[in-house]
Amino acid sequence: MPEDDGTRNHWTPAVYDDGHGYVTEYGEAVVDLLDPKPGERVLDIGCGTGHLTAEIAAAVDEAGDVVGIDRSAEMVREARETYPDLSVQQADARSFSAREPFDAVFSNAAFHWISDVDQNRVLAGMADALRPGGRFVVEMGGTGNVDRIVTATLDELDARGYDATHPWYFPSVGEYTPRLETHGFEVRRARLFDRPTELDGGADGLASWLGMFGDGLLSGVPDSERAAVVGAVENRLQPDLFDGETWTADYRRLRFLAVRSE
Ligand code: BEZ
After folding, report:
1. The domain that contains 73 carries what CATH number?
2. Is the CB of 168 under 6 A from ligand 1?
3. Per the structure, how many domains does the chain have?
4. CB 249 within 8 Å of CB 146
5. Distance of alpha carbon 184 from alpha carbon 157, whole angstroms
6. Pocket of ligand 1, candidates 145, 148, 193, 206: which has the most ligand atoms within 8 Å of its Cβ, to mutate?
7. What's the pTM?
8. Ligand 1 pocket: which of 168, 218, 252 to mutate (most atoms <8 Å of CB)?
9. Is 222 within 8 Å of 96 (Cβ atoms)?
10. Are the beta carbons of 46 and 70 closer than 8 angstroms?
């Protein structure tokens, strides 16, 4: 789930759920890897509109406890409205501290919104939040994730004289594993894999994706020029990512199951 990056992204929950529901659908596999058990306490980082948080809460049962956090006030409001019994807080993973230790920390599609320099702080916080032996299950964009979209957009911005940089952190297994180990985690499973993802919205799918997630790329472009830039990016990507009906984004996932050392 996206963490509001604090710049121009103001997530619109209805657009997020209706137009990008695949984030939750694909997240089911990450919940399976978490394998939540009755009675467990679980923290969900970047819980968005709360759909996966609610699934985890159902699995841990009445005896367990699930806390979802997200930086976006809009997402938190939506999650609370949809799931009034869930515990969802507006909080920043970089400064979150747990009052009681958790059995597991879970996160789907949020960690790539945390910058390279902030990752260590967040991992230290997650290690603190977990009991010894607790699980850390995370899926994020991996190295090369949405590379064609990023490259085409940066090239188009460069051609128009804008100075833009890659806004996300997409590490490899080899880069992220030592970070986890440095923070006291034993990595039990690590996997980088291609997951081409059909975007909702038909011919508008790429524009809709850039509209929802692309502020970090397009923040220097005035609103009056955004449509022209997006149209030009579509033209660049059409031969590779559009089949005449549907856009397919070149997602690559990085998935970890790590355990806090005793
Ligand atoms: C992702 O889930 O991989 C992702 C989503 C939006 C922007 C960048 C990456």
Report:
1. 3.40.50.150
2. yes
3. 1
4. yes
5. 41
6. 145
7. 0.94
8. 168
9. no
10. yes
Could you report the per-residue pLDDT of 28-84, keeping only the tens digit for each?
Answer: 999 999 999 999 999 999 999 999 999 999 999 999 999 999 999 999 999 999 999
CA atoms of 125 and 13, how far apart (whole Å): 27
**Within a domain: 211:** no
Per the domain annotation, does 245 fall within a domain?
A: no
Q: Inform me whether the pLDDT recorded for 5 exceeds 60.
A: no
Structural domain contains residue 214? no
| Measured distance CA(240)–CA(206) in Å, rounded | 12
Report which protein residue has its CA nearest ligand 1's atom 1: 141
Give CA–CA dist 184/186, Å, rounded.
7
Amino acid at 136: F
Give the whole-angstrom CA distance, residue 218 versus residue 195.
24
Strand partners, 135: 104, 259
Radius of gyration of the chain (CA): 18
Could you tell me if residue 105 is inside a domain? yes
The range of the structural domain enclosing residue 61 comes to: 13-145+167-198+252-260
CA of 26 to the centre of ligand 1 (A): 12
What lies within 8 Å, CB to CB, of 7 at 6+ separation is: 215, 216, 219
